[in-house]
Fold this sequence. Notes:
The structure holds two protein chains of two kinds.
Chain A (H helix, E strand, L loop, with lengths): L1 E4 L2 E4 L14 H10 L6 H15 L6 H5 L6 H7 L4 H9 L9
Antiparallel strand pairs in A: 1-2
Chain B lengths: L1 E6 L3 H10 L8 E7 L3 E3 L14 H4 E3 L9 E4 L2 E5 L4 E4 L4 E3 L2 E4 L3 E3 L16 E2 L4 H12 L4 E7 L9 H15 L6 E6 L9 H13 L3 E3 L4 E5 L4 E4 L4 E3 L2 E5 L2 E3 L1 H5 L24 E3 L12 H19 L12 E8 L2 E7 L8 E5 L3 E5 L4 H18 L26
Parallel strand pairs in B: 1-2, 1-9, 2-5, 9-20, 11-18, 12-13, 12-18, 13-14
Antiparallel strand pairs in B: 3-4, 6-7, 7-8, 10-19, 15-16, 16-17, 21-22, 23-24
Helix pairs in contact in B: 1-7
Amino acid sequence: MEKVIAGKPITVNEEGYLTDFNQWDEKVGEAIAAENHLSLTPRHWDVIKYLQNEQKNQVALSIRRVGKSGVVDIKELYSLFPNAPLKTATKIAGIPKPASCI
Amino acid sequence: MKNLVILGAGTAGTMMANHLHHHLKTPEWNISIIDERDKHYYQPGFLFLPFDIYTPDDIIKTVEEFIPKEVSLIKSKIDKIVPEENKVQLTDGKQLDYDVLIIATGAKIATEETPGMEGEEWQKSVFDFYTFDGALALRNKLRDWTGGKLVVHITEMPIKCPVAPLEFAFLADSFFKNKNMRDKVEITYVTPLSGAFTKPKATEALTHLLDEKNIRIESDFAIEQVDNEKKEIIDYGGRAIPFDILVTVPTNKGDELIERSGMGDDLNYVPTNKATLQSKVYPNIFVLGDASDIPASKAGSVAHFEAEILTDNILHFVKGEPLTEAFDGHANCFIETGNDKALLIDFNYTHEPVEGSFPFPGIGPLRLLKESRMNHMGKLAFRWIYWNVLLKGTHIPFVSANMSDSGKHYEKALNE
Lengths: 102, 416
Ligand SMILES: Cc1cc2nc3c(=O)[nH]c(=O)nc-3n(C[C@H](O)[C@H](O)[C@H](O)COP(=O)(O)OP(=O)(O)OC[C@H]3O[C@@H](n4cnc5c(N)ncnc54)[C@H](O)[C@@H]3O)c2cc1C
């Protein structure tokens, strides 16, 4: 479905994740962050850039992996993106929600 | 003479020994299987032991009785694999050369991943049921527990038999009902996932059951530590959940031997081609069961379907033929829901569990994703099937290694 984010029509799935990363830019990221009551600091951006890069390299994302990445530890990840950090951070980053393993 | 070596004589390794000895015979081939244990545990029984439904005798047999006599069984701890030299080193200093290697060393709990988990309260008020000792200690605790807060908890995914902790919560509900003390027990189900399960349709059905049984769910909980003094589990966001009994499923990891061999990912699982079951790095190494990193459930039923396909592929490999990309991630699991009922789910890499009938489309007798007594009988029969059919590598009539989508009620667009 379509949703206007940062003044642009953007295609998202029913949970609000972007389905086409090409439609993403930093303004879109900031707008999604605001919907989640977050304003992005440089540390948030470090995490977002890291996640986008992992996604590009087709690495499966998990909290454990991010915690060991050297970019942030899990404690800080939670303070940056409270509650469900990976889900919120991937949404802001414009990449798919991490598939949970079965 | 050529050597085929199987590491691990649990569910998957034992099946492979039984399949392969029919095909790879002396004098051309010598098959060995190595395990450090004498006992073969029926791990699905660990779910029932705490509730006095099974006794230890029901779920323990010897490793030896399931290994065909043509296969040499070596009892030893494996130190490491040296894949560049096609060698396996045992901790007693012995060494084995292989032409083809099968890794089936499974997965096990790693309590050390969570601070405080194996602390003061371990096996006093903090328990696991993924080991025989853990399940037994929990049985003894539950026998005369007078009630309080029971917290059933998953540390992180993936875990073996991902539905087992839910089943534990359901069985606890009916256990305390039968003891006429359900009103004295508050059951909370704590999961790192956003809901009861990983797949949408099954999550819907299971959430409904949790509600019906008055089991509270706390989702998106990533544990940081167990506080032994306050008897709480605390997540990275600071959320604290108090318990009188904590039944946790610790992080699951592959054996350290995989780490010592430099062959694993960060959880010691071996990178494996999900369709052929061949190692992604070494062509003469194959991996099945819980030891691999493929995105299928870590379940005995999965190992069974894999074993049929891996047998074909190993025979292809030794003849120099191309491998078949046949494994579809097929899993088939009963979910105990308490009160002598169960659900059944049947799914694969691309098809989530849905409602329907199994194994005969439209007929059953088993019902997919619906509670029934017949499904419960199926779960109990699984123990007999495990010891008498599965381990021996016998094909189960009417149930194919690849999933069948007839008899299943998919919506037009398949999720995932
Ligand atoms: C509580 C619980 C409930 C379950 N319920 C179900 C269910 O209902 N249905 C279902 O299908 N599955 C179920 N499972 C999962 C099932 O038991 C496993 O998926 C299955 O046993 C995996 O087989 P495996 O051969 O890969 O590993 P295992 O059977 O664990 O075997 C691994 C073997 O390798 C040996 N080994 C490992 N490292 C070394 C070493 N360094 N040296 C020597 N030996 C070594 C071990 O001693 C062991 O014998 C359940 C599991 C648990 C814990």
